[in-house]
Amino acid sequence: MNKAMNQAFRKRKITYTLAFLVVLALYLISAYITEFDLQTGIKAFPEAAKWMSERLIPDAKAWERLPKILDKLFETALLSVAVTVTAGIGAFMFSLLGSKTTGFRGIINQLVRMTAAFFRNVPDVVWAMVLMFSFGQNILTGYFALFFTTFGLLTRSFIETIDEVSASCVEALNATGANFIQIVFQGIIPSAMTGIITWILYMIETNIRSSTLIGILTATGIGYLFDMYYKRIEFGSAGLVVMAIVVLVIVIETISIQIRKVIK
Amino acid sequence: MTDLAMPIYKKAENPTDISDKRIERGWNGKIRTAPHSKSNTAIKALMFSLVVITVYAFLTFDYKEIDFADAIMATLQNIKTVFLEPRLTRDTVLGMLYQLFVTFCLGILATIFGAIFAFFCSLFCARNISSPIIGGIIKSFIALIRAIPTVLWVLIFAVSAGLGSVAAVIGLTFHSFAYLTKMYSEAIEEVDEGTIEALRAMGANFWQIVFQAIVPSTITYLVAWTFMRFEINFTNAVAMGAAAGAGGIGFHLFMAGNFYFDLHEMGFLTYVVVIAVIVLESVSTKIKEKVK
Amino acid sequence: MPILEFKNVSKTYDNETKALNDVSFSIEEGEFVSIIGPSGAGKSTLLRCINRLVDASSGEIVFDGQDVTQMKNKELRKVRTKTGMIFQHYNLVDRLSVIENVLHGTLGKKSTFSGMIGHYTEEEKLRAFEILESLGLADQAYKRCDELSGGQKQRVGIARAIMQQPKLILCDEPIASLDPKSSKIIMDHLADINENQKITCIVNLHQVDVAMKYSERIIGVSDGKIVYDGTPEGLDQKTIHKIYQSKTSDLITDIGGEAHE
């Protein structure tokens, strides 16, 4: 028995060795190109851990700033919901034109999909910088920067959801002689709703994280607060900002898990 | 519910009694049609709350007396410059392609590290080969990692490693690790119990089971998820280049926008990134179709 | 005058496969016709050409005195209100109640707005209940459709079709996903509707014996062509062989046929 096993194992060994070599080559090339130094990286871990546990702990000054931090945190949460809901409404209408199920075909379909791909793939940092010029340090900079990416992503996801879950009932409603608007409200919306909500909840969560990044770039919101404390080397306060974000994300995640359980 | 076929329209002379208890009426006395479903009620309540929150958000945002019309016009003008008049003014095309490659490599490194850690962690996370307690601990650890945005991970590591590729790669690795651990462990949970049993019966140890049964039967999924994460890492690497000075095309985008105020060059770089991402995206869509 | 007439109808899909090849036949009002043939023979395409869920490439399809192939949107929807359809996978809106799904049968005759918000008259609702009652489903009216069994779902499908008060019911493999017992219930209901309400029924089937038991006329389709059109009695082993292009012993001839559930 062991003989057969060993033989099988030896065959695999060659495959594993080859795979290992490919990954190693990828690593070496990438490390060379990016000037990545593994030693520095490994050393950074204990240092970062030590630093986090010593300096990132909120101090008295940080707690004084808590109301301000919570204020920005609340704003970030509101922003994420507002962006996701408005972009979601637009994306839903747009996805009806991009879905094959609804009967739009050919050019309209392609055009919608291409537009969605464009909005989804232009990095949100680009939107943020473009909007910075015209809107300045304004909450609308963050709003629009997140809006475009969210719109692109949700359009694609909604098209997939609609094509996946509504195709059969749309066919049946078509056969009864119902018109487009009736089919959308009586067939597509009820059947795709769970999928749509799952995507919306996911995007709200994602947008909270993204808005931190946008905030750093555009000097707005919670991201700016972190960046400011960080650059002023007031790490205690920066740490409190991180904790606040962690709590917010985990709360939202927990809520969405509960909601998803109920709406199944 | 009887499953007997009742002759249709024998009942026609005896139409459904208006007082039939099965017919339910709403508050207005009309016959209700909506199903008894908690889920549908929850969906309506959720939609309503989200809309209320959105309206509240727009009413309470601090707009700082911005001239909205002006700002929109200026934005459109800028968007036009970026997307319709892209050109390189400072760098060469070859130079930019090299920078794209750098970003690509940042993505690869984060994916490799994320995949290695995730692979070992997922073995302790998968319900069929590990204990639920260890799995639970790892899962809460992952939730914590995911709660901190990538850019903060990068900046946290930048304190000790300095701004640059090391901090960027480590920062990107955290979310890659979290994502891949979840995906890998789900793939491993799909492995047929029988295969594992058979090897155990032959006296194979844990690592032999892993490399002779689990890896071979899940390899397509592992590779597919890894590639899909690479796609995400690439876009994140662009952002990290911009927000955390990690180099690559993202950094050049940031410099063009925030330092040189050169919208034409920003446009060109944006197109380079968009094309690269669309190519990666179409590859990963193909992979997704195959895996499904 | 026949209620339905196919005149030299052909259908070619994009990839140049011919699903229907010069098909001609006519059906009288009140007939119960089964269309049999192997999967991929074009049965489904044939049925869908009638209510234009699929557009025929050439030929004429005259339903109720009008050529449907030339119809524009509004006319087409009007024809569709007169033809009910029953599907293999029931095609219900799973998250809506049974009664709401039945009421969908009235959408074609409603105004856009009241259809959109799902506003139905009390008469319509009562009629929906009556139909459910006759199908033995009134107790399930407020259940969501995804809580039902396959056989029950198909009865909701039938109820939706009857709600339309159609002249013709098209059934696309109505029992292919059902167990033998539920299949029998469904076929009995269809036969009953045909007999008592005088609604013409066209049923796609791949179980030969079910077709022979229930229909007064059988059309055999193979490779997009009609290879048999006549009474069940006239259908001999040789013809069946020709339709299915296989040894008859390979065919499943149990009532109920393939049970997927």
Could you tell me how far the N terminus lies from the C terminus of chain A, measured between alpha carbons in angstroms?
49 Å
Q: From the structure provided, what is the oligomeric state, counting identical versus distinct chains?
A: heterotrimer
Largest sheet of chain A: none
Please state the second-level CATH architecture of chain B. Orthogonal Bundle
CATH architecture verdict of the largest domain in chain A: Orthogonal Bundle
Strand fraction of chain B: under 5%
Provide the structure class of chain B. mainly alpha
The tally of beta strands of chain B, per DSSP, is 0
Taking the sheet with the most strands of chain B, its summary is: none
Straight-line N-to-C gap of chain B: 38 Å
Number of strands of chain A: 0
Report the average pLDDT across residues of chain B: 87
Structure characterization notes:
The complex is a heterotrimer of chains A (264), B (292) and C (261). Chain A is an all-alpha fold. Chain A has 11 helices and no strands. By secondary structure, chain B is an all-alpha fold. Chain B starts with 37 loop residues before the first helix and ends with a helix. Chain B has one domain: MetI-like (MetI-like fold), CATH 1.10.3720. The model of chain B is unreliable at 1-14 (pLDDT under 50). In chain C, α5 crosses α6 and α6 (150-163) runs parallel beside α7 (180-197). Chain C has a domain at 4-94 and 165-250: P-loop containing nucleotide triphosphate hydrolases (Rossmann fold), CATH 3.40.50.300. Chain C contains 9 helices and 10 strands. Chain C is globular and about 50 Å long. Chains in contact: A-B, A-C, B-C. At the A-B interface, α1, α2, α4, α5 and α6 of A face α1, α2, α3, α4 and α5 of B.
